TrEMBL record:
Regions of compositional bias (Low complexity) in chain numbering: 18-52
Enzyme Commission code: 3.2.1.52
Gene Ontology biological-process entries: carbohydrate metabolic process; peptidoglycan turnover
Any GO molecular function: beta-N-acetylhexosaminidase activity
Family the entry assigns: Belongs to the glycosyl hydrolase 3 family.
Name used for this protein in its record: beta-N-acetylhexosaminidase
């Protein structure tokens, strides 16, 4: 290396003086001194950022988590309207006070909450402002016989009339139109579509609320309706699991018993629920019916772990929200008091406790069951996580939901919605 360098310098310098490196400099890379290693701090593993659901869950007390499970009726047409009914039932005067007192996860609206488009929008907005965590604001807008918002929304036919057409695309269009109008009003969860197969002509409670008596047709209609609601960004609910179609007793007033074998259930009742799950339905509602061949306990499906967890979750693979049917109905109140009903529903696998007959007693019972360990904190977190996941999926956790009265007025009874409804006249 040194010789080559001298030769090069000589060639370029025409015999001028040669400048050599200082003796201390290394003459080759192999002779270079190795720099001493500098101690470094140990690398800390990156902490994954919490999801909106995890963040919301982490900020809740046990009382607030328990509150997320409940969806009662409320009385009034504004969040701050005092009501004797609210005071008598909940120990709070106004809807806003009821929400705050029980840390409610949701409320369900009925015709007595509905006066006009602008009133409903103002009501749902003020309900959301009253809640620390955005609410599920629900209703039963099946259309046809069960139409809670008939005073302000488009008038569409019920499932039975749609089913007679044999056209799933019409079920999808009606569901999408219904979902758009509800969403504009500030409602974000519809307890529809009905997924029951009405094989009993004497059924006193389902009847034309179902798409028909053919499991294959009903399954297609239900799947189409779920897709329609989803297109409208509306959470949908398939009901009433495991199937309320073959009853002669109304579960509002009694406890129906269905004698289908497991094979018959698979053939008759299951297809629409399987189709709904495959279509991505947000929630499934339980039925207050006894299915002895599915569960020998004698308890209604709403209180059956065998049916809600074993059949719906484990066998059918449903991972969304399980809602009870209304807990003030006679079908679920035959054997247990209102507090025990709520606890048993959670233990069975339910996430959303709809319309408890006695909210104060039910809330205290569930809270006591969590504190005693009968309902584990892990089990409670499972339900709250599912409810928060539904809210996040529907855009409720990203920002406080706000409806617009002007937009709602423009969406209600759109010409294309009236044209769609006219197809069935």
């Amino acid at each position: 290396m040194t010789g080559l360098l001298l030769a090069a310098l000589t060639a370029c310098g025409g015999g001028g003086p040669v400048v050599e490196r200082p003796p201390s400099a290394p003459s080759s890379p192999s002779e270079a001194a190795v720099a001493p290693a500098v101690p470094t701090e140990p690398t800390q593993p990156a902490v994954p950022e919490q999801t909106p659901v995890e963040r919301a869950l982490s900020r809740m007390s046990v009382e607030e988590k328990v509150g997320q499970l409940f969806m009662p009726v409320i009385y009034g047409t504004t969040a701050d309207s005092a009501s004797e009914e609210n005071q008598a039932r909940y120990g709070a005067r106004t809807p806003a006070e009821v929400i705050e007192k029980y840390h409610l996860g949701g409320v369900i609206l009925f015709p007595y909450n509905v006066k006009s488009v602008s009133q409903v929008v103002g009501f749902t907005n003020s309900l959301q402002r009253a809640s620390k965590v955005p609410l599920l604001i629900a209703t039963d807008q099946e259309n046809g016989l069960v139409s809670r918002f008939a005073a302000v929304m488009s008038t569409f036919p019920g499932a039975g009339e749609i089913g007679k057409t044999g056209k799933p695309e019409l079920a999808q269009q009606v569901a999408e139109a219904t979902g758009k109008e509800l969403r504009a009003l500030g409602v974000n969860l519809d307890f529809a579509p009905v997924a029951d197969v009405n094989v009993n002509p004497r059924n006193p409670v389902i009847g034309t609320r179902a798409y028909g008596d053919d499991p294959t047709l009903v399954a297609k209609m239900v799947a189409a309706a779920v897709k329609g609601f989803d297109a409208a960004k509306m959470a949908a609910t398939a009901k009433h699991f495991p199937g309320h179609g073959d009853t002669t007793v109304d579960s509002h007033t009694g406890l129906p018993v269905i004698g289908h074998t497991k094979a018959e259930w698979e053939r008759i009742d299951a297809p629409p629920f399987k189709a709904a799950i495959k279509a991505g339905v947000d929630a499934v509602m339980s039925a207050h019916i006894v299915f002895p061949k599915l569960d020998r306990s004698g308890d209604p499906a709403t209180l059956s772990k065998t049916i809600l967890t074993g059949l719906l979750r484990d066998e059918l693979g449903f991972t969304g929200v399980i809602s009870t049917d209304a807990l003030n109905m006679a079908g679920v109140r035959k054997k247990y008091d209102d507090g025990e009903i709520a606890v048993r529903a959670v233990l069975a696998g339910a996430d959303l406790l709809l319309m408890p007959n006695d909210l104060q007693k039910a809330q205290r019972a569930v809270l006591a069951a969590v504190k005693s360990g009968r309902i584990t904190k892990e089990r409670l977190d499972q339900s709250v996580t599912r409810l928060l996941t539904l809210k996040d999926h529907r855009g409720l956790l990203a920002k406080t939901p706000v409806a617009s009265a002007a937009k709602a007025s423009s969406v209600m009874r759109l010409p294309e919605h009236r044209k769609l409804a006219a197809l069935f006249r």
